[in-house]
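YM 10:42: tRNA-dihydrouridine synthase sequence, as discussed on the call
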Amino acid sequence: MKAGLKIAGLELRHNVFLAPMAGVTDLPFRLICKELGSDLLYTEMINAKALCYEDEKTRSMIKIEKQEHPVALQIFGHEPEFIAEAASILNDHDNEILDINMGCPAPKVVKNGDGSALMKNPELAGRIMEAAVKASRKPVTVKIRSGWDEHNINAVEMARIAQNCGISAIAVHARTKEQYYSGSADWSVIKAVKDAVSIPVIGNGDVKSAQDALSMLEKTGCDAVMIGRGAQGNPWIFNEVYRYLEYNEQVREPSPVQKIETVIRHLELAVQIKGMHTGVVEMRKHIGWYLKGMKGSAKIKNEINTLYRFEEIKGRLLSYMDELNVLLDT
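YM 10:58: structure's back
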């Protein structure tokens, strides 16, 4: 199955993308995923109103490095005027695509009327998308969920509204807001959306391997696959999926040594970009994901959670690598 996709005028080489994840898809992680095979990268979701008010932290979150391209910068909000202003601001930014989040289920987001709360208000969602398309000189895409709950599955309705508003592509996380991240994704919703619109449809939900990606593409007819939690601690999944789809190749799972080397590389980037304290603290969850399932990893993770300097953590990881090599040799 040949990869590749066109979104508006943007030609993409692959159809395997990194999903936007709050607190996860920051610049250091995106750089790692790009190095390991992801094509289109999505940023963490950015508060449109905070961007308009020139919030310093928000401004730091939209930084894009040249080696990342192409990048979809995701914004969220429920006020069309702020979405439009944010789109205008980002016309002169480095991202190739502007994406609107209408799927985040986090309570603190939903209670403000943002994210997946918009699944309950298609009329407002339409006005937001229309405002963004009018203000943006770049392709505008949107990410939605199946619906609010099992009794309100309206992804097809939202997709049709999106297409009518001039949205260039739509990503569907095949879970409801009420499911959060539990249960199984219902890929039939992705298929229903694909059958209902002519714009590209990106499938999301429960893709944890190359076989999962192929299965989603075949069962739903979607144009691309977006990987979120399946990439946590496993950024190699992008190359694995691409090689399988493009060449029918089975890529060997990374060795413990490769994993630890990548952890150190990721940690180094985090400290360089965010400073020692923030970089180390924010890396703890990533380290836990990378080491999950490795022999003795629980003890190592607990030890690392007490350390605050790059060299200390690097040293402990290297000694853990030596311990693993001894175990493998015995």
